[in-house]
Design brief:
The protein is mostly beta strands. It has helices at 2-21, 23-28, 96-99, 108-113, 234-239, and strands at residues 35-48, 66-76, 81-95, 116-131, 145-163, 169-171, 185-198, 203-214, 275-287. The termini are far apart.
């Protein structure tokens, strides 16, 4: 949580600075030029963590991509600045058996670990959008094409599940496969960039690439070390790879000859926070504001 508050403070400080620089603009951008839009989004969702094909951040498998759906409401406050609140649902997934190469010395360990997961994420976010092209007029005279960046704060609920020997999915968080009781409710820092295109008087289309910096390594239920699960349930031992502390058990694959690496206390994950990404398109409909013509005397 310390890291979350550190990142949050930095974000809020940045937003406060942005607000102060927009004060002069607000004098010319009167309330009658502000407007609100509502929108829907269809996105592709991926994750970066311990079950990716490689340990570098940019590694992901295309067939692990899953859909993400969202609703949002956006209000334009200043010529360049809008605020957006959104809710979204999506899924992330990955499997060592598909992503790790058993013939690669750097990936053989992960192939033997043989972990798998899927995780449904329900997210609510509040972000500030900064247009790189300003509009000091009302919505009718907005630019046809506008690139933008955004950043803010989000909260989400997640619940990783693993597939057992019979192909059934089991909730992993209650099993404490690493002896850690992590929370299903977490915070993240959403940020990214996009482009917005004016379709007609009231309709905009956007393409956006968004990243989520999380503060947990358990989106995939893999983070630190193998635990001593001698007193745990058979299900926990299965997903935790425990077999009496002598060799890999459960879901692990012993065919690669690295069995000795799986004793309790041995490294299971990288110990780093997981990330997820949301990339896709949205349509936003501008709610007709009342545009008042100036009075002449």
């Amino acid at each position: 949580m310390t890291k979350f508050f550190t990142y949050s403070t930095a974000v809020l400080a940045g937003l406060a600075l942005l607000g102060s620089t927009q004060h002069a603009s607000a004098q010319q951008f009167s309330k009658r030029k502000q407007y609100t839009s509502i929108g829907v989004s269809l996105n592709a969702m991926n994750y970066f963590g311990d079950l990716n094909p490689a340990t570098n951040f940019a590694s992901f498998h295309l067939r692990d991509t899953r859909p993400n759906f969202g609703l949002n409401i956006t209000h334009r406050f200043f010529p360049r600045v809008s605020g957006r609140f959104a809710v979204a649902y999506g899924r992330i997934t990955a499997e060592d058996a598909d992503n790790a190469n058993r013939d690669d010395a750097n990936a053989r360990y992960r192939y033997t670990r043989n972990a798998n997961f899927r995780n449904d994420i329900y997210e609510a976010s509040a972000v500030v959008i900064v247009d790189l092209i300003e509009n000091r007029n009302n919505y009718l005279k907005r630019p046809d094409f506008v690139p933008y960046v955004f950043g803010g704060i989000a909260g989400y609920h997640h619940s990783p599940q693993g597939k057992d020997a019979n192909g059934n999915y089991v909730d992993l968080q209650p099993l404490k496969t690493e002896g850690v009781d992590y929370s299903k409710f977490q915070f993240s820092i959403p940020f990214g960039a996009g482009v917005r295109y004016r379709i007609n008087r009231n309709l905009d289309a956007s393409f956006e690439i968004g990243l989520r910096k999380t503060f947990t390594g358990y989106l995939d239920d893999v983070n630190n070390n193998y635990a001593d699960l001698s007193g745990a349930s058979a299900t926990a031992q299965y997903f935790g790879g425990y077999n009496g502390g002598t060799r890999p058990g459960g879901i692990t694959n012993t065919s690669t000859g690295v069995a000795g690496s799986f004793l309790p206390g041995a490294k299971r994950g990288q110990g780093k926070s997981d990330w997820y990404t949301v990339t896709g398109f949205s349509l936003n409909y501008i709610l007709n504001p009342k545009i008042k013509n100036p009075k002449f005397r």
